Amino acid sequence: MSMNKNDKDVHDQENNEIKKEHTFWQTQPVEVGDDNCVIEKKCEIVEKSIVLPKYFKFSTLDVKNELHAVYEFLKENYVEDGHSKFRLLYSKEHLLWQLLSPGFKNEYAVTIKYKNIIKGLIFATEKNIKINGKEQKMAIVNFLCLDKQLRNKRLSPVMISEIRRRINYNNIISAIFTAGQDLPFKLTQVKYYHYLIDIHFLNKIGFCDETFLSLKYNLSIGLNTRELKEEDFDQVKILYDRDMKNKKIYEIMDQEMFRYNFLKKKNVVYSYVKEEGGKVISFGSFYILSTTAIETNQEIPCAYLYMINGDKKYEMVKSLIELSKIEGCKMFNTTDIFFNEEELLELGFCKGDGKLNYYLFNYKASPINPNEVYYTIP
């Protein structure tokens, strides 16, 4: 394969940015090891933000009045696949679900603006996370995004430093985040798998080739499967806690968090239970997150497995796929934290080429297997 000068310039620029990014992380409290503890137990409280270049400024997001601006910014600039053919598309309803969750503080929604136009975004919320048996209050960092035209300006480390400053100010000193980029302090790496619901549509927009057209979609909603209700929470919590006994990283959820995370929000999150003899034996949930086919600007509604607990998980995930189809989803996605590869292939999933890495900030833990993680950042 040959590379013309323009391709080489872009390739060299990307490599230089990756090297600079690694240089930044070398100055941060990030490492893997067996200690299972906070690295820097005291954090320096910094009163003021880093001074940005002329016309740039940090700004706290006004969620109510700037939601549309954030939606448009992410629509044009957020995560793309490795071939720049598809880009994640967060609906306004989904953004509100994340931005206003319990543990959210308004100062944790940070933008960089250039002449009052959003050019960068980073967001965090507080969660109680259990890591190798230890409970730790952590910031969950998400939506790090910069305008494509500014990605060679070294602003990502500046935004990370700013969100760290704000988190530290509230006495939160550790964080967890995910990224496609492979950094030296990776905790684990998970792989994406896809259940192709509308295969002809996905082939038409270029997600899969003709070899997948022979696949047969043959699922149905299992018996005694119904929508989650508030009165189910006690039973569902028992299933969740039981499954977490063998996991190394998961969220500690009280009733308020369970209610917020899993009660149905139309076009955002859907949750179901399966009963036997009047008792809840299985619980499953998916959220909806669309993808844009960049070349044609077509939207692909997708479901992502959010949580699954209890018995008969195979039956539950099959029901969830069919239920997501009813909601208009063209594809059902998951990673290998809930099922291993053999199980997913048996269920009819296809292995994708996407990967996601989990990282801890200011917390030292040894690398773990994907099936030891039971935490998803939507």
TrEMBL record:
SUPFAM superfamilies: Acyl-CoA N-acyltransferases (Nat) (SSF55729). Keywords: Acyltransferase, Transferase. It catalyses: N-terminal glycyl-[protein] + tetradecanoyl-CoA = N-tetradecanoylglycyl-[protein] + CoA + H(+). Residues 224-369 form the Glycylpeptide N-tetradecanoyltransferase C-terminal domain. GO terms for molecular function: glycylpeptide N-tetradecanoyltransferase activity. It is an enzyme of class 2 (transferase). Residues 43-188 form the Glycylpeptide N-tetradecanoyltransferase N-terminal domain. Its EC number is 2.3.1.97. Pfam families: NMT (PF01233), NMT_C (PF02799). InterPro entries: Acyl_CoA_acyltransferase (IPR016181), NMT (IPR000903), NMT_C (IPR022677), NMT_N (IPR022676). One of its GO terms (cellular component) is cytosol. Signal peptide: none annotated. Adds a myristoyl group to the N-terminal glycine residue of certain cellular proteins. PANTHER family: GLYCYLPEPTIDE N-TETRADECANOYLTRANSFERASE (PTHR11377:SF5), N-MYRISTOYL TRANSFERASE (PTHR11377). Belongs to the NMT family. This is Glycylpeptide N-tetradecanoyltransferase. It comes from Spraguea lophii (strain 42_110) (Microsporidian parasite).
